[in-house]
Design brief:
Chain lengths: 288, 395
Amino acid sequence: MPEALAQALINGVIAGTILAVPALGFTAIFAVLNYPNFAIGALATVGAYAGWVGNTALGLPMVAALALAFSATAVAGLVVQWAAVKPLESAGALMMAIASLAAGLVLENALRFGFGNDLRGYDLPLLRDWRFGEFRVGPQQVQNFALALAAMGMLWAFLRYSRTGRAMRAVADNRDLALLRGVDPARVAAVTVAVGAGLAGMGGMLVGLDTSVDPLVGTRLVLSIFAAAVLGGLGSIPGAVAGAIAIGVAEEVAVLAFNPAYRLVVGFVVILAVLTLRPAGLFGARAS
Amino acid sequence: MTLFTRRATLAAGSALLAAPHAVRAQGAPIRLGTLTPLTGAGGPYGPVMANCVRAVITEVNAAGGVLGRQIQLVSEDDQTNPEAGLRSARKLIDVDRVAAIMGTWASSVTTAVAPLCWESRTFLATVSGADSITALPHNGWLVRTQPNTTLQGRKFGEYAIELGARRAFFMAPQTPFTQSQFTNMKTAMERAGGTAELLVYDASKPSLRTEVDQALRFRPDIIVMGGYTPDTTVLLRDIFRAGYTGRKLAFAYSVNQQMLSALPNDVTEGIHTLAPSPAENSGGFARVKRIVGNDNPDPYTCQVYDHVNLVLMAMAAGRDGTGQAIRDSIRSVSQGGGEKVDNALDGLRAIAAGRKVDYDGASGPCDFTDAGDISDCQFRYEQVRAGRQTLLRIA
């Protein structure tokens, strides 16, 4: 049993790290634009398909396909923002969230219209896991883990060292003060949406690499992404990473304790507990 | 002239309103519905099923329809989801006022939709297999062309034993048939000295590594997969990664050509599959092949072809285009002797000539018990070899 628990922890950390990439996108958009973008699942699906096209039709290697997934989803995210969400900005966060949900459904069905319901697999060999005594870890998992860490590292560097990244943090911290300092809110919003959606697309592709691509690949992640962001504190970048890893581990360990069919309960229980005990989440003081 | 026209119009309108309802309805089209999964896990099957029904109806309409009335088809998507299926069924029943709904695929959808059908006197023909469906108090408003899961579970257990397995681990998502499928498989295995264990997983999970670890701790000599295509794809990948090299057995509807194209051959090589077999030498099967333009039509398209033919003939035999007529007359055209027919055109001609018909379709003889189950079915045993299904036998 201790071996089973340790193996579940390894699986959970890896699953959580991949989940952290779209969770970062979700929380970044919330931090700057103050609404939960529920199109994140469909955007992850866009990324999964874009990466798949890049890899199988254009013959791109994995890193280039991931860059394509990021770029295509950034564009899709901007289209969703300008066409569906922005016109409802004055109606408040709830309306913007509903608009994003609707836009997500449109995106998902547009993909279904274009690609059909068939499962798509990347042009990659499927390798057996490496075994270390009682434990095992997959080469693809390790690669995805490294790619997820690299994406998070680049985001951290972008937010810390680039002028635009600092402007995004400034708007997230204190919008009015940032405006007084001459930050262009429209530009910051556009960059945030592009980066947030792009991260969702990368996350969708990473999940697609580990499984397969179909029109629901991203939608299946939405609850876990949302639970991760709520647990970490909506709007908190480190919180999204910690929340995603915690959710990943909780979902895997729960399989050992409960009937695996009730995995979804984990996400709901976490959301309920956080909203009851610490509405700001683990790291999200400003969200309260 | 204007006054006369106005009077004439008023008179004609009044006469029309005063006429009996039946006179106005005469010649109005009869509406039928398909409720198949155009999206979701059943998405590979539903569109072909709906197109097959449309082709049969087009052919019948071109030959004059049923009882002198044209047939109008309304096709809705159940999204392989009971909630969406229920919404679509309400639309078919309340808005379109269809006489019958055909082709519900997932057992969860059929279970949700069935009460709505019998309460509204709408006939339901389904391809779902869960035992619980025909055990519902449907009072004759439902038939299915898919063998129930008692039979399918027993076949799985017997086949696992035949393959030399003694310890089976059954992995499936939560569905209305999971428990009965497992119980009947386990009973069949235990009768032959084997044993079986069940794990129900969450079908929306992107990775099932921990679940596969649970399975391997049982030390199975066969893993039986009871899910749909998307989750079985995830499961197969994780079984392969875990290094399991034992036998694998699954429903043929989940291990379909689309999955085989999406996964490397190493992952799928050797999987055994079981499926209710269409009647491959029948005239109905040849017609379905022609309609779908494919030499190997799936069992569900064959079954829904039978649904529409039976429904059309039952309305003709019952002399009415209603669900009630279909319910009361379907067994008079599906069984009990008479002129053998394999399509509605021949059947409608025979019925119009006053002859009794006995339909044998693309999926089988289509003889129904009082509960609505089929009384006879063959199974198709296949194995995946080099990325393709290879037929081992039909029995």
